[in-house]
Task: inverse folding
């Protein structure tokens, strides 16, 4: 069953079509990877899905209801969490309070919310850093804080925008394990990622965007052998 | 120490009026006036701090709420021959309404646009109250009969208001609301994506801030006995002074507004008595603000460590 349906979504910025007629589903419980070269429209698609943009044309359905046109906080309340490619921590708050601010969504009472924060921080390996002001956190941990915060809103669908970019190999392994455990908890994940090794190892299906258009969709094995994808993206990634 | 400090301060403040009757170190009524004003400015500072400090929405138009509260009290007597004390009650829905209209108009704006819009609204309120002569008696202002000559009852009332405000804000900041306010300040997009209705929480902060400022305004009327639009809707003497109180004391700190109010009121009372230079007191404030922004951006309370270091190294002559 599809938890998210993206239907004919187009997004124009002036004359630029950042997305044109993109259609695909995210199935409940899977990890769907969204890949494509820089500027392909991946982040724009996330913004259309979580409500920062209203698609110029087309619509997005989440759990069977149209959500395009709703505000991000309303979509989040319906069970969608997201992280940002350019991390947006609540700078002058410490790690614990960052996560607490989002835990209040489902747990208005403070004691209950703090319990959730504790679980999430232990789960993401940030418990030791809970008192550090988030501005002073190294990038790898700031990326993980993004995930922790989104998890604290107790989502059914999690959108991860390049949560692995800029991580060192050790941090990469930690994050991959976290993503796998999130999936085991029954949370559906849509992930944008450039790291092909990561993508191939964790995702169930892959959607490929290029110049705002969907050029392929399939399992990692299918995508790896798709000549169009190899030309548009994988070749380039292999060179880089 | 940290836990007992609020109680010690409160005890000192409760006992303070007794000093009026003490044989040594006798506190004159002019001193009582300065202290009452400092407490009143503490209330407005705490109110402004909720919106500007915690929620990050800097308002240059808080005179709109202060003046509205003042006029609520004055107009009770002027039009209805009722006690001006009813103004406290009436000011609550009145300032809340102004805040909601203002919120609807300007809270969607971000950064400098919001600041400029609040500034404009404060000025619009002043000009409106100057020109609605039938309603407000225009620039002639309104005089009411004060209830007491003795300052002690006024002192007790404003102290009660200050303590109430302090407890209310402390409670809000420690709850979900406080975290939401700070989240909005730190990053509105992140806050939205974490399920926080940013417009709603900004409006809540604005309305609460407005109501508290309005109550201080109502107090001003019953205490001073005379108001006119130039005084209570003043950009320099109300809107900007509120900001100075918070900046000097410390933005987004519990005690900043109190410290800032004491310093600002003491300074302004003192500077005004200097011959020739006294009328230029706003120039002094301007210079003070620049110094604070450069050297103590978090105010005296926020940057007290920096300050302590300064004093242990060498004592500047001015101190
Ligand atoms: N708010 C905006 N206004 C105008 N143009 C935009 C806006 N957001 C994105 N774009 C443009 O849309 C295109 C897609 O951008 P997007 O950020 O979605 O790419 P991306 O696939 O996430 O790339 P990357 O891998 O670099 O993150 C780019 O050409 C970008 O310049
Ligand atoms: Mg992107």
Result:
């Amino acid at each position: 069953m599809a938890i998210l349906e993206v239907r004919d979504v187009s997004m124009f910025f002036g004359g630029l079509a950042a997305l044109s007629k993109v259609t695909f589903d995210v199935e409940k419980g899977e990890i769907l990877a969204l890949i494509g070269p820089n500027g392909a429209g991946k982040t724009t698609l996330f913004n259309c899905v979580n409500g920062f943009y209203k698609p110029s044309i087309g619509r997005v359905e989440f759990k069977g209801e149209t959500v395009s046109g709703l505000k991000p906080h309303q979509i989040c309340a319906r069970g969608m969490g997201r992280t940002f490619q350019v991390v947006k921590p609540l700078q002058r708050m410490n790690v614990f309070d960052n996560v607490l601010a989002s835990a209040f969504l489902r747990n208005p009472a403070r004691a209950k919310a703090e319990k959730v924060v504790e679980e999430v921080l232990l789960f993401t390996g940030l418990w030791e850093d809970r008192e550090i002001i988030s501005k002073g956190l190294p990038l790898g941990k700031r990326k993980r804080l993004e995930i922790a915060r989104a998890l604290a809103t107790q989502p059914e669908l999690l959108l991860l925008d390049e949560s692995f970019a800029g991580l060192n190999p050790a941090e990469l392994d930690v994050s991959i394990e976290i993503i796998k455990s999130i999936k085991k908890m029954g949370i559906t994940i849509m992930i944008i990622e450039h790291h092909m090794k990561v993508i191939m190892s964790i995702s169930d299906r892959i959607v490929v965007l290029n110049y705002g258009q969907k050029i392929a969709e399939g399992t990692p094995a299918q995508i790896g052998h798709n000549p169009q994808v190899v030309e548009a993206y994988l070749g380039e990634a292999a060179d880089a | 120490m940290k836990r007992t400090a609020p109680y010690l301060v409160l005890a000192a403040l409760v006992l303070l009026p007794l000093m009026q009757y003490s044989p040594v170190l006798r506190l004159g009524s002019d001193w009582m006036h300065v202290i009452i004003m400092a407490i009143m400015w503490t209330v407005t500072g705490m109110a402004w701090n909720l919106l500007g400090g915690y929620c990050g929405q800097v308002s240059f138009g808080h005179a709109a709420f202060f003046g509205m509260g003042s006029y609520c009290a004055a107009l009770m007597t002027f039009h209805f021959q009722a006690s001006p004390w009813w103004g406290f009650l009436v000011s609550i829905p009145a300032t809340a309404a102004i805040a909601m209209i203002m919120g609807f108009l300007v809270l969607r704006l971000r950064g400098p646009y919001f600041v400029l819009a609040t500034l404009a609204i404060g000025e619009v309120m002043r000009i409106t109250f100057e020109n609605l002569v039938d309603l407000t008696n225009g620039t002639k202002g309104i005089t009411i009969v004060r209830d007491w000559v003795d300052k002690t009852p006024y002192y007790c009332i404003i102290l009660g208001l200050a303590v109430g405000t302090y407890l209310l804000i402390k409670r809000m900041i420690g709850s979900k609301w406080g975290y939401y306010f700070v989240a909005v300040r730190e990053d509105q997009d992140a806050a939205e994506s974490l399920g926080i209705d940013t417009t709603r929480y900004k409006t809540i902060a604005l309305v609460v801030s407005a109501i508290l400022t309005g109550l201080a305004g109502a107090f001003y009327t019953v205490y001073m006995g005379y108001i006119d639009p130039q005084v209570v809707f003043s950009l320099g003497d109300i809107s900007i002074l509120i900001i100075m109180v918070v900046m000097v004391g410390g933005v987004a700190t519990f005690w900043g507004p109190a410290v800032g109010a004491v310093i600002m009121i003491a300074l302004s009372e003192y500077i005004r008595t200097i011959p020739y230079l006294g009328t230029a007191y706003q120039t002094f404030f301007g210079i003070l603000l620049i110094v604070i922004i450069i050297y103590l951006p978090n105010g005296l309370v926020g940057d007290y460590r920096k300050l302590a270091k300064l004093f242990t190294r060498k004592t500047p002559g001015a101190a």
